Amino acid sequence: MGTKDILQDTPIELLGCPFDETSSFRGGTKFAPDSIRKASWTIETYSPYLKLDLDENVFFVDRGNLDLPQGNLLLSLELIEGAVKEMAKQNKRFIIIGGEHLITLPIVKALKDTYKHIHLIHFDAHCDLRDEYEGQKLSHATVLKRIKELDFTDIYQIGIRSGTKEEFQKARIIAHPNELLNKIKDHEPVYITFDMDVFDPSLVPGVTTPEPGGLFFPEIIPYFEVLSKMHIIGADVVELSPDYDTTFVSSICAAKVIREMIMILTKTLF
Length: 270
Known about the structure:
Elements: E1 12-17, H1 32-40, E2 46-47, E3 52-53, E4 60-65, H2 73-89, E5 93-98, H3 104-111, E6 118-123, H4 143-148, E7 153-158, H5 165-170, H6 178-183, E8 189-195, H7 217-227, E9 231-238, H8 249-269
Parallel strand pairs: 1-4, 1-5, 5-9, 6-7, 6-8, 8-9
Antiparallel strand pairs: 2-3
Helix pairs in contact: 1-8, 2-3, 7-8
C-alpha cells in the first residue's frame, strides 16, 4: 500500500500472501497483493466514512510479500502461520493481503497462542463450511469448517448466499450490523476475514468464484462503522483474482476495503 516511508516500529503491518493452491473454478489470486498495491495509488487517502486520513496520524507499514513455495501447500501454510505468530508476539495489528481464502486457517491458528478466544467476522458469498471439497480437507471451500474445529472462535457470517443445505444449517448469518454489537462485548478480540466475492459481481467481477446477488460498497460501510468500535486484532482480504477484471475496478475496491481496514485498526488502537 501507499506508505511513503518505511517505519520500523509501527503498530499496524500489512503483509502480502500470494497463495493460490486450492482455487477450484478459476485461479489467479496470487497476483492480487501486487495488483491491490498498484490500485492503492489511485485512491484518496481520506475516508469519508470513518473520517480519517492515511497521511494524518495513521501509522502502518507494508512489509511486502511473504515468499511462498508455489506448489507446496503445507509448507506455505506453515510459513504464513509463522509470520503471523511473530506479528502477534510483537503485539502488532495486521492485515494479510491474499491470496485465496485458505490462508485464513494458518492466520487464525497463529492467534491461538496469544488469545484464549476470538470472534471471527466473515464477509463472503459462500459458507465455506464443507468438510471436504473435491477430495480435499484443506481448501478455500472448507476453511471455516477447519477454523471451527480449532474450538476457540465464535464465527459470524455476512453476505452469505451460496452453500449446501448442510452448510446453511450450520451457518451463523448476520443480517444487520447492530447484531454484532449485541453479540460481542467490549474489549473482546475480533478478527475480520473479508472475501471479495461478498460484493456483487457487477461491481467486483475479478474474483475466483463470483456469485450474483451480492453487496455493494455502501452496504458494507455500516458494518465497518460498527467494527471500528470493537477491539480488532487483525484482518485479511482474500479471493481477488485481478486478471478477470480488465477495468481494474475490482482491485480498486479491494484497495478501498484495505484502506478502511487500516482505519478500523487505527481507531481500535486508542
